[in-house]
Amino acid sequence: MLLLLAAAVIFDLKSRKVPNFLIAAGLILGMAGQLYTSGIQGLGVFAGNVLFPILILYLLFLIRALGAADIKLFSVIGGCAGFPFLIQCIMISFITGAVFSLLQMLRNRNLCYRLITFYQYGKEVLLTGKLKPYPSDNDGKNNLIHFSLSIFISYVIGLGVRIWE
User: Fold this and answer.
1) Alpha helix positions (H), 19-110
2) 32: which residues sit within 8 A by CB, 6+ positions away?
3) Single pTM value for the model
């Protein structure tokens, strides 16, 4: 998993894309692991762990706040490492992602602008009741982060927590 996630980060940094062959390899590994440890019953657990990130993070994908590859990477983690570890990775990755985003906005010197944009977006969604893509680059500065790096870091931290338990 570490190698797969590291490769995903490298691809993401180079091309802003994570190839589907990496996702497929991770899903195959997870499915094989579940079959080996739990038999045919493990397939249901595997399916639930893979589908969970898709269901809970789909809204963030719709507003373009999270990429499809990021959700797929969470599905791979769920399929390979199980539900509790998946939840831990999701929480840690959003914390590290928030830190990276804050650092990016401080570097770009547009924190106030981005906070105002967030407020206006939220207000418009609440008033109209309609979702639309979140404005990501209206000020001409690249505010996007490579969230796969946050996912990788969350996995490494999660492994460290498991070792100390």
Assistant:
1) 20-38, 42-62, 68-81, 83-108
2) none
3) 0.90
Candidates 97, 60, 91, 90; CA nearest to 76 is 90
Write out the two tokens for 56: 């809970």
Amino acid residing at 98: A
Of 63, 44, 66, 56, the C-alpha closest to 86 is: 56
Q: Which residue has the tokens 């809970």?
A: 56
Q: Cα(136)–Cα(26) distance, rounded to whole angstroms?
A: 30
pLDDT in tens, the chain (165 residues): 999 999 999 999 999 999 999 999 999 999 999 999 999 999 999 999 999 999 999 999 999 889 999 999 999 999 999 999 999 999 999 999 999 999 999 999 989 988 998 999 999 999 999 988 888 766 556 778 999 999 999 999 999 887 776
